[in-house]
Design a protein that fits this description.
Blueprint (H helix, E strand, L loop, with lengths): L4 H30 L9 H39 L4 H4 L2 H11 L3 H6 L1 H38 L7 H41 L2 H6 L3 E2 L14 E2 L2 H32 L2 H12 L6 H22 L9 H25 L3 H9 L4 H12 L1 H16 L3 H6 L17 H9 L8 H35 L1
Antiparallel strand pairs: 1-2
Helix pairs in contact: 1-2, 1-6, 2-6, 2-7, 4-6, 7-18, 9-12, 9-15, 11-12, 12-15, 13-14, 15-18, 17-18
């Protein structure tokens, strides 16, 4: 019988679940004989979880190793044992890719080279044999560990401690993985950005007023010079984000105050879910709305007053982006305002303050750290938005603060530079990493400012 990887996974899961219930039942029986659950070191659920993990963890390790290594090991065995005359050619990835394509039943590779066809056939045969063998030994190991874990159950077994240690290990591993992932992202961007600054002066990039990255990416291509002044991109990003914040922050904050302080429970239960639906709408939908409805409306309205409004403008993108990020401000601000202790409200009312005075003088200042956090989250969301800007603001790198003209942002240019036939030795492509590094630094500065504000007001109200 042919065994597949999903069958092996489901079988291991069934064994682990069965072991869980058997261990739970056995621990209950031992507790009844000993005089009750309080006679055990741990709860029955802890014994059950320990036994199940004894089965699940080895099975997971086997599956991960199989998925990761089997392809490379089998191909290496086929080449070194049966196709030594191709060993030199295999160093060129073309031969190896041809074998993989033949394995996937692409006829062009099977017909062109009989060695490739034979290698593909042997690969499939060896894969079936090794999977069957791996499955047999895996099930034998899992069942053996299941029996051992059931036998080890006794009143003195510190199952709870072992489960807690495992959970701590998982949490520490997850934290470490997140940290190293962040470091990897930063280093990858930093290394490529350094390569870019070897070709383009740092101050020319930061303070340059013209953005035209038309460097040739292959010999003989037209357009061998370009300008990499990023100021127009920073200006466009700041302009659109500012417009979005002007829309989102007042509306979002006032909505949060109304829902938490004035609205009835019935009204709150209806309005808040409807408002948070805005956060689930895809950004491309907002982009279509901005390009098809908002931008033409703004242009028609401006022309009626004699204003020259571009068909794609920063105002259209900023307005729609502001509508999109209202839930980020309102939802977080609402939760923070509700977390303000009722004693502060009662103290204010006892001194004769009105509800509006209490909100302005007590509640909002007490909730200010959380509100600042929500606003900064909204700013980060606005800075990183791409689709709305592409569809409503355009790609023109204009160095202007006029919201009626077309502009572009840093994220849009990153996407533009990395799309299509690019070569990563070209300053044109490497400029995307320099822009990404700049965005990272800006976000870091915003976070530092937010932490300072939160720390200042937290000390005041704790």
């Amino acid at each position: 019988m042919e065994i597949s990887l999903p069958t092996l996974s489901i079988g291991a899961l069934i064994v682990a679940i069965t072991t869980y219930f058997l261990a739970y039942r056995r621990s209950r029986n031992i507790a009844n004989k000993a005089g009750g659950v309080h006679m055990l070191h741990s709860l029955p659920v802890h014994y059950a979880m320990r036994s199940a993990l004894w089965c699940a963890i080895p099975a997971a390790i086997v599956l991960i190793l199989w998925i990761t290594l089997h392809d490379k090991l089998i191909l290496h065995y086929i080449i070194t044992e049966n196709f030594s005359h191709l060993a030199q050619e295999v160093r060129n990835f073309e031969i190896l890719n041809n074998i993989k394509n033949a394995i996937n039943n692409e006829a062009i590779y099977q017909i062109s080279n009989p060695d490739i066809q034979l290698a593909a056939a042997q690969y499939n045969e060896i894969k079936k044999e090794t999977l069957t063998t791996t499955s047999f030994y895996s099930f034998a190991l899992i069942i053996t560990l299941s029996i051992i874990s059931l036998i080890q159950i006794n009143p003195k077994l510190q199952a709870r401690n072992k489960i807690e240690s495992f959970v701590k290990f998982v949490l520490a591993t997850s934290s470490t993985l997140a940290i190293f992932t962040t470091l990897g992202i930063v280093l990858s961007v930093l290394i490529e950005a350094v390569r870019f600054f070897q070709s383009v002066a740092f101050f020319d990039f930061i303070f340059g007023l013209e953005w035209s990255p038309q460097i040739a990416i292959r010999e003989g291509q037209v357009g061998s010079t370009g300008a990499f002044g990023a100021v127009p991109l920073f200006v466009g990003t700041a302009l659109i984000s500012l417009i979005a914040m002007i829309v989102a922050v007042p509306i979002g904050l006032m909505t949060a105050i109304y829902l938490s302080e004035y609205a009835s429970r019935k009204m709150r239960s209806i309005v808040k879910p409807l408002l948070e639906i805005l956060a689930g709408i895809p950004t491309v939908v907002y982009g279509f709305f901005a390009a098809i409805t908002v931008a033409p409306t703004i242009r028609s309205f401006g022309e009626s007053y004699g204003l020259d409004v571009a068909s794609e403008s920063a105002l259209a993108a900023g307005l729609v982006m502001g509508i999109m990020i209202i839930p980020f401000v309102s939802s977080i601000s609402d939760d923070v305002i509700n977390a303000v202790p009722q004693s502060l409200r009662d103290g204010s009312y006892s001194l004769g303050a009105t509800q509006s005075e209490t909100i302005k003088q007590v509640i909002v200042p007490a909730a200010l750290p959380g509100i600042v956090g929500g606003v900064l989250l909204a700013i980060s969301r606005a800075i990183g938005e791409t689709m709305i800007v592409v569809m409503a603001a355009g790609l023109a790198a204009n160095n202007t603060f006029n919201p009626l003209e077309a502009v572009t942002t840093v994220t849009v240019q990153i996407v533009t530079l990395l799309v299509g036939d690019q070569e990563f030795d070209s300053p044109k492509t490497l400029a995307a990493f320099a822009l990404g590094l700049t965005l990272f630094v800006i976000t870091l500065i915003l976070n530092v400012i937010a932490l300072r504000v939160v720390r200042k007001y937290r000390e005041q109200y704790e």
